[in-house]
Amino acid sequence: MTDVRDLLDRVSAPDGDGRPIHDPATGEVIGNAPEATVAELDAAIARARAAQPAWEALGHEARSAALNAAADAVDARAEELARLLSREQGKPLNGPNARFEVGACSAWLRTNAALRLEPEVLVDDGETHAELHYRAVGVVGAIGPWNWPLMIAVWQLAPALRMGNTVVVKPSEYTPLSVLALVDVLNEALPADALIAVSGGRDVGARLASHPDIDKVMFTGSTATGRRIIESSAGNLARLTLELGGNDAGIVLPGTDATAIAQDLFWGAFINTGQTCAALKRLYVHDSVYDEVVEALAEVAKATPMGNGLDEDNVLGPLQNRQQFDIVNRLVEDAKTHGARIVTGGSPATELGELFYPITLVADIADGVALVDEEQFGPALPIIRYTDVEDAIASANRLDVGLGGSVWGPDRDEARRIAARIESGTVWINSHGGVHPMIPFGGVKGSGYGVEFGVEGLKAVAVPRVING
Ligand code: NAD
Prior knowledge:
Number of helices: 16
Low-confidence stretches: none
CATH superfamily of the largest domain: Aldehyde Dehydrogenase, Chain A, domain 1
Number of domains: 2
Largest sheet: 7 strands, mixed
CATH topology of the largest domain: Aldehyde Dehydrogenase, Chain A, domain 1
Strand order of the largest sheet: 12-13-14-11-10-16-17
Number of strands: 19
Bound molecules: nicotinamide-adenine-dinucleotide
Structural class: alpha/beta
């Protein structure tokens, strides 16, 4: 079996020092994460600032080559990274989980290496010749969450490095070791101080966002923290990309074949055991197919194994932390008091471990109940019956978040017409949550602003410079 000891030795705090990090499946301590002080963060930002001009001056070709070499380094350590991620985050090795996440890191690095952002000719009419060029912003602060810690770190750092920025990464305090290990591996291929990881608590995140020498903040996390980062940007005028929480709705139209969509619906909702920003979090199903859809989802749930992520059979894992476990438990208990019907699950799976909660399908529930209105970020899905599609569209749009959404039905044109009326950054048809390194991704309303991925993602970590004349 691949050992993660070497990676842990490279990044852990000395014995007796740092913050103990627990395996959410077993409660075991897997290592100690260094806890940086604000002074250490300041020193890291100064180093990143000093390294930036030379990194930008290398030019696009050399930086692309470095990103490809960094992807090679990730591939060479993929199994170790996946195992460390599984132990720290809880997600299984198999399924759309730890090995998949490490693979996505390499794919995003390579795609960013291959992207081209050429100067645009704006006006060329004989009198005026104006071009729009893009250059690096400077030093980018990358602040991430605990659900997809490696992939989201790469989503932030790959385009930023590609454009010639240097980057200071602040991982979530729940999953620092795997991100520190990833950055250490990436740094096998990058020049000194182009990419620095600083592990610490919320105080370190707050300082990074408000630091006068940070030019851009890439943030993925909760809407509440996003608001604080916006406030701090009044001080340092940092540009922001904010990927915040969501409460994605899915609408299943009449005539849909429930068994044909059940697998995709299930994974749209329960990828990473529901701990995914753009997961399906409220499902609106037409009365004519409601019972079949609930039944088909329950069949998939029964056949999908949950447990310790290092067991090759499992594809669902624990909640990553007690706080998230308590949110899911509270929302399901509250739904019960409102008369909702528990189809599968419905109470903690303590036989598997303290932080396990089973796939919980909650039927006969309505808008206004907290499980529908609040982001559960876990394995509990409310399934709401509707009779008029106009009501389902109004329900999808009634909340103040808008990251993703989906429409499911046999008629693609009809589904697309409805999709055009959903207020979210992405609407999928007959699928939910798939992302692609060339397709911009971002939210509207309380889900944040700015997009990541593709050429638009490069522009988001660049500043325009017009050459006129
Ligand atoms: P969180 O906001 O609690 O923490 C995210 C990060 O922000 C952590 O690294 C934390 O240390 C840091 N932080 C805390 N206070 C800060 C401050 N004042 N200034 C700067 N940084 C600070 O979020 P979380 O609980 O880790 O993640 C879960 C949330 O993230 C969910 O709401 C989920 O929907 C959202 N999320 C969104 C996306 C997306 O792409 N839109 C992706 C994943 C998660």
